[in-house]
Structures are given as C-alpha cells and as structure tokens.
Amino acid sequence: MTFLSKQFLSKYPDFPRDMEPIAQFTYLRTYSRYLPEYGRREVWKETVHRATEYNVNLAYRYFAKTLSPAQLVEKKRELTQEAELMFDNLFNRRQFCSGRTLWVGNASTGVADKYPLANFNCSFTNIEDWEDLCDLFYLLLVGTGVGFKTTKKLSQKMSPIRNQFGTTHEVYQPVLKSDRLEHSRLEINAEQGQARITIGDSKEGWVESLRYFFQLLTEPKYTHIQHISFNYDSVRPKGERLKTFGGTASGHEPLQEMFQGIEKVLKNEVEKDMLSLEEVEEGYVRVRPIHVLDIANRIGYNVVVGGVRRTAEICLFDHDDYETLFAKYGINGLWGEEAFTRHEQIKQKMSRLGIPIPKWWDQLGVKHYDVPYVDGIKTFTDKAEAKQFAEKQGIENYIPFPYNNSRPLHHRRMSNNSIAFRHQPSKEYLEFVFLVMHSEGEPGFVNLSEMARRRLIQHGITEPTQTQLEETMDEIGMNPCAEIILKSKNVCNLTTVNVKAFVHEGKLKIDELIEAQKLSARIGYRMTLVDLELPHWDVVQKEERLLGTSLTGWKDAMEEIAADSETERQILQTLGRVAREEADRYAKELGLNRSLLVTSVKPEGTLSLVAGAVSSGLHMSHSPYYIRRIRITAEDPLAKACLEHKGWVINPEFGTPGTTYEEQMRNARTLVIDFPVKSGAKRTKDSVNVQDQFNTYFMFQDAYTEHNSSNTITLKPHEWDEACHIVYQNWPQFIGVSFLSYDGGSYPLAPYEACTAEKYEKMASEMELFDFTKLLKYEMAEDTELDETMEDCATGVCPIR
C-alpha cells in the first residue's frame, strides 16, 4: 500500500534547503542506499519516503487483519494523514524514526521483511545455553547491538562441553555461485568418529554452522565424534557484493578464525595463566563466564572484520567475578610512569579488599625500555642499563620511557564490559572500580536493582519484595549503550525528537513539540507489530512491546529559550507523560498490550549530525562555535566528491607519510573533514563540572526516562573521586553512565575544536554547498558506511545505527 502520493511528494526538493553540509555528508555516508537502477545513492527525500511508507504500512497490514473493508477504507485515510505528517517531520529533521529503519525500511532488496530484527537497535540475552550464543551471532549479523549477561549462576546452567577433539579446516576452493549451499550441512562418519560441517552462504548458514559445532560437542549422541572438519567452499569470496544488506562479503577467513578462536577458548588456551576448566565427567568440562565472554567476542570479531559491519556488544557480569572484571585489563598496554603507578595502586587496593591478584599481574608490571640504535631496537627491563646502552651508542638526550604490552588479547575489544551490581557496593569497592576505570576505561557498572524496580513499577508493583527484585534481576540486562532495560530475548527500536527544531526566535513551540512526541511514540509502537524471525524472541517482544522515545538537541534548545532548571524539568515531565499516554492510547486503539517501558535517551551521535550537529541527546554542545571533524576512508566515493568542493577544509589523517600537504594527501588512507558548527550553547563543555553533568542525568531519570538516560560524564583529573562519591550517595536512583577522561581536545585534528564566531562565519561562508551531482562521477556501487559513527558511544564500541 502506498500512502504518499506523487502530488504530495512533488512539494519537496531532494534535500531540505537548510540542510547543512555536515548533515548532508553524514546522511550520505550512513543512511543513503545505493540505487543500482539509477547508478547513484538515494537523496534524503527518497530515504524518508521509503522509511515512512515502511513504518505506516506496518499499521495498515495489522488493521487489514482486524477491520472490516469499510473500516479499513476510513483507516487508510487516517494513515495517509499520519504518513504525510511523519514524512514532513522527518524530511525537515524535526524528528526521526530509528537509524536502523532509515537504512533497511522498505529497501528494494526486501531486507526489512526478510530480516525484521535488522530494524532493531537493541537486544539482550542471558547466556545460559549454547543456543543463546547462536542467537547472539545471528543478531550481530543482521546489525543489531547485543547485550548479554554471563554470571557464575548462568554458566552453571550451560551443558558441559567436550574439549578433547581435533579439527581440520579444509583449503578454501570457492564453488560457482550456482553450486553454493545456502544452508549449512552436517555429515557424520560414525565409523571413523568424524564429522564435517559444510558452511552455507547466508546468515542463517553461518549460524547453523556454529550450532552444529556446539551440538557435536555437547549432545551425547555425538560423543564418539573425535574430529571435526570445516568446509568453506560455499562461502562467497571476499569483496563480492552483498545485495540484500549492502556492502561487501568478508570471505571465509573471519569465519575460520572464529572457529579456531572458539576451539582455543574451549581448550583454555587464550591465556597461559588461566585457571583450569572444571571437569564434570570424562572429556566434558564446564565453562566459566570468562569463556562465554571470549566466545561472544570471537563471534563479534568475525562479524566486524569484514569491514562492512561493526559489532556492538556489552557483557554484564558478577561483581566478584574478577576473571571477567580484568578481562581487558592491560590489553592496550601500560605506557608511561603514570600508568605503572596506577597499576601498583590498583594492586594495593586489591590486597586491602581481599581480591586475588591475577597470576599475570606482576609480569604486566615489568617496565620495558626500548633503545633505537643503528642495528635496530634493543629492549631492557632495567632503566639504568637502557640509559647506559644509549650512552655507549652515542645517543644524546635519550629519555627512558617505560611500557609493557604483554597482554594483547585483541578479540576482547569487541565488547564493553560492565559489572552488574545486585546490591549497593561498599564505598571502598566502588573506589577500586573507579581506580581501574580511570586507568583502563573499563569495567563500567550498572545497578540491576534500580533497573528491576523500574520494570516492576510498570507492572503495578510499587513496593516490591526482595524476592521479586531478585527474580527480576535474574532475567534482565541492557543493550550495548545501556539506555534500554531489556528482559532476556527482547529487543527495542528507538525513535528521536529533535527539540531544537521546535525553537523559533527564542520561544519553544510546545504544542508542536508535544505532537511530535506523540508521533514518536506511535512510530515506535508500530515497529512492535512486526513478526520477528526468531520465534522465542518474538514472544517476549510482543509481551512487552518496548519503546525508546528519545530526545536530542535538548541542551541547545534549553539554552536558546533561556530555561531555568525548573522550566527544564517541567518540559521533560510533560514530554515523558505525553509519550506514555500516547503509547497507551495507541496500544488500546490497536487492541494490543501497553508498552512496558516507553521513554529513554540514547547517545544520538549520528542522527544529531543529520539534524545539523545539534547537541546530542542530553549532552551540551562543545561550545557556542566549534569545528566538528569527521573521518572518512580516502577511497570512499563521497570523500572524492568532497575534494571537488570549494572552501572545504580537508586534511590527511595525522601521521600520514609525506613532507608536503600534497604528498600526504596522495598517501592518505583516511581523510579528516572540517565542518563549522554554530550551536545554542552559551558556554563551552570545558566549563561544565562533574556535578552539573550528574544533575542533568538525575533530572532526566526522575522527570522523563522510564528506561535509562545514556550519558557520558567527562571527568577532569581531579574529578574522579568526586564522581565516585556522587554515584555512591545517589545509588538508589542511579542505573549507569559512561565515564571518560577529559583530554582537552588540544591534539592535532581533534574531533571537536572550539572556535570564534568570526572563524565560524568565515568557514561557513567559504564552504560551497554540497553538490550531489559531483558524487555521481565516483559512485560505482554501495560502499557506504553500514553503521553509525564511532562517536555515538564515547568508548567507541557501541554504535549500530
């Protein structure tokens, strides 16, 4: 069914006339699909048209099953008005459906119908069965971010698994496209105790191969299988086009590395000092959470390595699971005296708390010093010896710099890892966590009890018993960016209202803003009408029908209307109430159950750029005027088109070889593009202290958010202790935020750089508007980014559209 007529659409140009270069650039690199029939990417009007038709048709299909023909005719008139309102708001960037739907909704490849889960930003599962890891694999393959929880209690539920087996990975000899298997095939040679897994050329086929692998090692009927061989010949070669999702195939190697990596995990070979696996019967062992984490990360690494997807994972674990707590510790190495000092401080803190010191700890604390000389580099572990050698070599002004990078567990970078506290930790333990976090950036932590309380309130339980809290904490977790509270096997699709778009000449158009918030709830609720391809996930999704109505441009808007804190709170309360009421009303109209949780605030990195670089989510803009730098692969057709525009400031990435700008540009693999931005901010981010940032978070939690408010708290060196104190004092209201060390942004080509109004005006006036026709010269196929920019989450692991 088509709701937007040609006559209606003819009123709109390809792009809004006020669409800033940064907005157009971000849209083209992230959400614009390649149209092979036209030999070009979509324009904004086409993307919005496609996403709007998809979303409204979800409601039409549902009503077609439940209404009489006469009622359906009237309903179509209502839905046409809804589609026109949705299109107009999206086109003018007043609000957005999810970025996932902007990418897959109504795409000509049919991806949204074949893979409905591809529409969803967020998912979560407990890992208590080997099949749960297969679900995780599938969700990552369709582009959904996955939160997972692995605890001692959950890992005990997993079937024992054999770890005494051999494998062979057959030499890859790709077959003709017509001969490829779509689904994987398992062959058993019982007499020789061998099995062969031939991997099919599809997402389903890849997941099936992992399922077969786990079945061979856990099911009693396969106990006699001692050797497993893998055949990859049906997997399409690296670089071949992926027609349904877009992008290019990663080839068979990442898949082979995944199986090899999982084999190492099961044989306890990831790190030499790991505790032995518990043997439960001859040949069978029981894995611990660290093994589950490693397998999930190996799966994620396989998905990401093709270069056309990024993996978003978060792992939640017990507060006393120190093996998992230190899983990523030191994987970036220790560099400089300050890092080694913190390393020793953490050890002292662990001793006071009775936390066991890992076997590898002291080895990581050994300082290494490199001395470059004519024959190469000589490494010392004694500072004096290094200096002495440098003197003998005639090296002047040698400065010994200590480092240690002896723990390169790179696959563990695939997830953010966070402690799932069931009860408030002691102040000293929380100080320990902050100390580790200050040194390493992780682990984060979340308050499961407050998450459980919020869910129970929506079930009408305002004074839950401890048993109710415990049972709820057992079954819940979060998505990778930690703004959605999810029951195991559930998903969420997020929508956004750009509050700044409703400010005109210093006044907030509150009535229009309220209508947009209502529409945001309806857009989100319609997404719950899909039938998910994983039946057990579909059941939970339809039970809870979670929404995530988010806001962006908030701080810019509040600055522009000069709102005091009480006015800000009142507007938030109104928008929160409106979203809840509209979600409930719409559920009743559809005859379906109400959404358990409705409001949230997501990171909003990419869509905020499409909205014109408004302040993202609940954060402040960088400063009143600033330069926003965005990186792009030099070979991307969009990058080549940008180089043809007058007045665009484009530089090679810092460190690119070459003695002149021209030479560096020829050698550049990554280009950095400067975009001037004028925001609503009245002060710079530098002037905001830790208390101000927490005040905003707790205000949103109290006045607006039913889930959680994604927030990155930026901490200057002297603010870490204060942040710990604030969290401890406000624990009952706290769920979780990210913490990031303040770097000042003073290094070359920093993502944000404050500038004067004069410099902004000069750059903006000289920057030629983006000419879409110049892109056509270079556009050959779909090479756009398939997920959001890494700025969506400060840790750089989160974003999946």
Automatic annotation (TrEMBL):
GO molecular function annotations of the record:
cobalamin binding; nucleotide binding; ribonucleoside-diphosphate reductase activity, thioredoxin disulfide as acceptor; ribonucleoside-triphosphate reductase (thioredoxin) activity
Could you name the active-site residues? 481, 483
Record SUPFAM superfamilies: PFL-like glycyl radical enzymes (SSF51998)
The reactions it catalyses are: a 2'-deoxyribonucleoside 5'-triphosphate + [thioredoxin]-disulfide + H2O = a ribonucleoside 5'-triphosphate + [thioredoxin]-dithiol
EC numbers listed for it are 1.17.4.2
Give all residue intervals belonging to the Ribonucleotide reductase alpha-helical domain.
4-105
Q: Does this entry carry the keyword rRNA processing?
A: no
Q: Which UniProt keywords apply?
A: Allosteric enzyme, Cobalamin, Cobalt, Disulfide bond, DNA replication, Oxidoreductase, Redox-active center
All residue ranges annotated as the B12-dependent ribonucleotide reductase insertion domain in the record: 190-266
Q: Which InterPro entries does its entry note?
A: RdRp_reductase_class-2, RNR-II_ins_dom, RNR_alpha_hel, RTP_Rdtase_AdoCbl-dep
User: Is the keyword Disulfide bond assigned to this protein?
Assistant: yes
Q: Which cysteines are joined by disulfide bonds?
A: 122-492
Biological processes, Gene Ontology terms: DNA replication
Cofactor(s) in the UniProt record: adenosylcob(III)alamin
User: Which PANTHER family does its entry note?
Assistant: RIBONUCLEOSIDE-DIPHOSPHATE REDUCTASE (PTHR43371:SF1), VITAMIN B12-DEPENDENT RIBONUCLEOTIDE REDUCTASE (PTHR43371)
Q: Return the similarity comment.
A: Belongs to the class II ribonucleoside-triphosphate reductase family.
Q: What is this protein called?
A: Adenosylcobalamin-dependent ribonucleoside-triphosphate reductase
Q: Give the organism the record lists.
A: Thermoflavimicrobium daqui
